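Hi L.,

You mentioned the student needs an example of a multi-chain input paired with its predicted structure. This one should do, with 520 residues in total across all chains.
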Amino acid sequence: MEKNWKILIDALKKLPVYTPENHVWKKIKLYLAKNLASGKMPQLHVIDPPEDVWTSIDHELNRREKLSSLKRYNPPEEVWENIDRTLTTKLIKRRTVRWLTWSTAAAAVLILGLFIFTTNNGKNYNYSEEWVQIQDVHQWEEDDQPVEQALALLCSENPATCKTPEFKELQKELSSLNQSKQEILKQLNKYDANTELEIKLTEIELEKSELIKEMIAKTI
Amino acid sequence: MLKSVKYILSFIIVLLMTGINLSYAQVKVQVVTLEINKTIRWEPGMSLWVQAERAEIFCTTHPSNTIELEVAIIAKNESRKSAETDLKKMKWLNETRGKKIFLRNYIELKRNESKPGSDIKVVYHIKIPERCAVNINNYFGKIDVENFNYKLTVNSQFSKIDLGNIGGKTTIKTYFGDVTARGIAGEIFIESVRSDIDLSDVAGVIDLQSKLAEIILVGIDEITKINLDAEKSKIHLITGDYDRFSFRLDLYKAELSKPGNMKFEYAKNEKETIKATFNNTEGYPRINIKLNTGNLTIER
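Structure written out for the whole complex:
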């Protein structure tokens, strides 16, 4: 008995197939007809199959017979309705699950989009160019030092006057103006022509001039 | 012929020199702008508090229960990179704490970080509900409020203040920030130092305390009362028909200029001190002016 039956079958399948010419078949047919008529055909061997083959055939026939003898029942209408309903529910469930999956995916995309949109839309950077006139911010500081030095010199020559409450009040006012001036100067920028602040600086300078004149007048 | 060539050449040279000069004066700057738009939910009783610096603030009302906000932070520099870096130093925040909605901008420098070399400013465009109280603080810049009729408080340093069509209760404290108002009514209190005050079409009660100011009051027909207490200031009062008002003046080291027909009753009329009244009876809108050093001009 062949052990590797499957391998053998596969190998046979792979063999090339040859079909004989029609005249070959005709010759075979004639040969067989002649020999059968003359009774010269050799007798074929008769082989009995093993017992277990007959047993398995018997079992199969018995099973088919029993199945055919089983009683047949038609289920009531409601059973079919139940089956139908169950199938419909399952279909709806399947559709719902599919819908939920899609909507979740859409929501995720939407949230991501919204996030990108809000971060972009909430905060937008724009770029442009413009021509500006460079401002001379330092022009406002030019006169300060000589004036302070002159006042210090006058006070060193006339210390009594500089110690009077009136002079000290003027000094305090001058110092306050200088402080405000410095505060404004810190905000001035060479790229920004801030006319309003420059007007305020002019007013400060005018007022300072008045104060300084008054202080000088007192010391002389 | 030679003369005309000389003229043409001279003209060309002058033109070239002017051109060179202009090219030195002007530079191309990179402008980087960060824009923020926001809608804030508002409920009755909530108020808006703006704490700004280097800001131009434009505020008005709209018929809605939201605060609509457009903020632009702008940095200018010859170098785009520097403008971008400096722009990031200007921080902006908005938060709601209880009944207060806060808007704030400020410069924040990290350790070893230099001050911004760019020109930086913040521009706010704010629309608020009609019954939303507003409190604005600004250090350098501009404040512009229009069509508001509730409670407005402004605290400004070096910021110009422009008001238009304002009512309700208005309180302004300003240092080096001129105040201009066109159409202002209700209860108005202004405390100013080194700031000019220009009010026109005024109604209601005005309480004005100013130091070192040029004060102009025009169109005061609808006023109920004016209390003006000033120091080292110039006051210009244009009254229209002055007979409709009752005046009380208390002037020290001040010059008084008034229409010739306006006859004051003087309690004191000395070289340095003037104490006088006009129409001193009940039933007239009262104008009290106290001035220490300066001048007062009353005009029809």
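You could point out the following to them. The first strand of chain B starts at residue 26 and ends at 41. Confidence is low (pLDDT under 50) at residues 15-24 of chain B.

Best wishes,
N.
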